[in-house]
Amino acid sequence: MTGTADSDRDVTATPPAQRGGTAAGGTAGDDSPAVATPDPAAGAGATPGADGSPVRTVVHVVRHGEVHNPEGVLYGRMPGYHLSDQGVEMAEVVGRHLGGRGVVHVVSSPLERAQETALPIAAQHDVTVATDRRLIEAANVFEGKTFGVGDGAMSRPGNWKHLYNPFRPSWGEPYLDQVVRMRGALEAARDAARGHEAVCVSHQLPIWLLRSHVEGRRLWHDPRKRQCTLASLTSFTFLGDEIVSVGYTEPAIELVPVHLRAGGARGAGA
């Protein structure tokens, strides 16, 4: 998970938090990644290796590449939104980046942009792309509309009835529901690749919520502060059944527009 150049940089590699409240959907702490010393016994009692020790499995959760969206709408779960030419190139970069890894399982959200991102990754390892609906984008009442951070949408009176509760949130799929389904997909991928590596292709918000849950942060957050840029990898390392570290890499960062490198997404359409 360690990059060697700016185009393949390993931004973080931290063990998951060990503080209370994580399983219930995060704590009331700040937005900084939580760091704690991994438990040497993590994974003990889980599926053992040949010598009786817990096996190491890595699951890379990949955000899809750039999407062709000239109207700038929040496309969410809408069909018909495909990767742009730049997005296809991003997916190919990720495929090459993972080419030397022991990937034996590739699974994707059912949406076109995720499936298209998964294809060059799967091709590198001669596996087929499976589909897991639990990896899908978050549901959002603003789907099909122009709605994003800083575009004035929050000042429109017609939108206020959906904006009264940022903690749940009131405009879409509850954060905790996303965590539950993403954690289920993550663990299913782990089980399919025991002792090897797996790739799950998903979307920005569900990936960020999964990472926040694992690292013990609160789930409600400022969308501009998500560390989950286009074609990035959030990698979960397991010993047995236990997550012992979380890493983050941006192999296609040189292809990502500068204004999209630190959050910058149009809400749940990313």
From TrEMBL:
<dbReference type="Pfam" id="PF00300">
    <property type="entry name" value="His_Phos_1"/>
</dbReference>
<feature type="compositionally biased region" description="Basic and acidic residues">
    <location>
        <begin position="1"/>
        <end position="11"/>
    </location>
</feature>
<dbReference type="InterPro" id="IPR013078">
    <property type="entry name" value="His_Pase_superF_clade-1"/>
</dbReference>
<feature type="region of interest" description="Disordered">
    <location>
        <begin position="1"/>
        <end position="54"/>
    </location>
</feature>
<feature type="compositionally biased region" description="Low complexity">
    <location>
        <begin position="33"/>
        <end position="52"/>
    </location>
</feature>
<protein>
    <submittedName>
        <fullName>Histidine phosphatase family protein</fullName>
    </submittedName>
</protein>
<dbReference type="InterPro" id="IPR050275">
    <property type="entry name" value="PGM_Phosphatase"/>
</dbReference>
<feature type="compositionally biased region" description="Low complexity">
    <location>
        <begin position="12"/>
        <end position="21"/>
    </location>
</feature>
<dbReference type="InterPro" id="IPR029033">
    <property type="entry name" value="His_PPase_superfam"/>
</dbReference>
